[in-house]
């Protein structure tokens, strides 16, 4: 599997590390260009390459988008159209600027990113702190294995993303559609920023 990652900050770099560790080919990008990622790529080692965001979008079989929500309109839409895209982004108005649609909850940040890119979007990796994603993976059956909520409207795309989650040492729990399910694991929900196992996460998502 070749994974494009757009955004090489806390989350993008943590995921690049984990994906490379399990042998995925990783194409890592940011907004300033591949030349600014040389040190990080060397430090991570393994099958990671620095590329432009457009190349990560075009060449990734699945693409992780992990940038501040407020910059989502800068994403290269054309190469992402129809592709499995994992959205880790959260809306923080103090960082992103106010989005009236999100302030009024008429839609969600993931649906807005989906509308911009027309990607086959799956929301995941948005609830756990970057350090937990980087260091918190555990083998299947380990009592300390944590779970990650996944929402999206395409079952096949969700299955692909659930596989990525399992491969780096977490369980995936289906939260539902992008709209209804996605709202259950946004900032401010009971599951947000909580270290939960699959049973605990599933129970809380059902109660939302
Ligand atoms: N930090 C966490 O623990 C955490 C947890 C869950 C979810 N999240 C969410 O995940 C997203 C990423 O968070 P983060 O903490 O990793 O952010 P971050 O450390 O600030 O990194 C953001 C990255 O996005 C890149 N970027 C910005 N605009 C871009 C564009 N138009 N094209 C390509 N790359 C672009 C930046 O590149 P440049 O530096 O070159 O501009 C940087 O590499 C956010 O939406 C955040 O709310 C964060």
UniProtKB/TrEMBL annotation:
Quote the InterPro entries the UniProt record gives. NAD(P)-bd_dom_sf, P5C_Rdtase_cat_N, STEAP_metalloreductase
Q: Where is the Pyrroline-5-carboxylate reductase catalytic N-terminal domain?
A: 2-91
Q: State the Gene Ontology terms under molecular function.
A: oxidoreductase activity
List the residue ranges forming a coiled coil, or say none.
none
Q: Does the keyword Secreted apply?
A: no
Name a Pfam family for this protein.
F420_oxidored
Q: Which SUPFAM superfamilies match?
A: NAD(P)-binding Rossmann-fold domains
Q: Which UniProt keywords apply?
A: Oxidoreductase
Q: Please give the Gene3D superfamilies that the UniProt record associates with this protein.
A: NAD(P)-binding Rossmann-like Domain
Q: What is this protein called?
A: NADP oxidoreductase coenzyme F420-dependent
Organism listed in the record: Streptantibioticus cattleyicolor (strain ATCC 35852 / DSM 46488 / JCM 4925 / NBRC 14057 / NRRL 8057)
The record lists the lineage as:
Bacteria, Bacillati, Actinomycetota, Actinomycetes, Kitasatosporales
